[in-house]
Known about the structure:
- With 156 residues, this protein is an alpha+beta fold.
- The chain has two domains: 2-80; 91-152, no CATH class.
- 49% of the residues lie in helices and 22% in strands.
- It has six helices and three strands; from the N terminus they run βαββααααα.
- It has a three-stranded antiparallel sheet.
- A hairpin with a 3-residue loop joins β2 (20-33) and β3.
- The chain is elongated and about 70 Å long.
- The protein starts with a strand and ends with a helix.
- 14% of the residues are buried.
Amino acid sequence: MSGVFLRRERSLRTAALRGELRLTVHVGRKRGLPAFSSQSASCSLEWEAPVALLQSPAALRRQFAAAFARCRPAVAEELARPPAAEEPITPAQCQAVQTLVCRRRLDLRLVLEEHFGGRPLEDLSQAEAGELIGVLQTGSPTATSAALRARFGPAG
């Protein structure tokens, strides 16, 4: 997602009285990751320019092009970084696991004991929680238990 904005404080007339425009560009990207996760990055630049720039559309386009040229590589570089390996479970993931376990009529304590060595839910990583959510979203309670054993195995 990217955009170009001429921010209007009250109107272009107000900007003209002050003799300046406030220009903003924004570049944002999001990519999907395994285990119901995603990574996003964005870059916004804002600067003031003389209102006379409106009289020269080519010069205005060059300013925006230069700003985009600064933002795009910054966003690409940020997305190229590998995501943190062991980000902790998010509050939304915690809630989703608890809701799905309740819906499946499973005992969360037993699921965690059997498949995660009894670690508390809050100690799971985002990746582990995402996989657990995926398994809990499919099948009956019996199939869910079998899928958990197949995916995570019994804790040992």
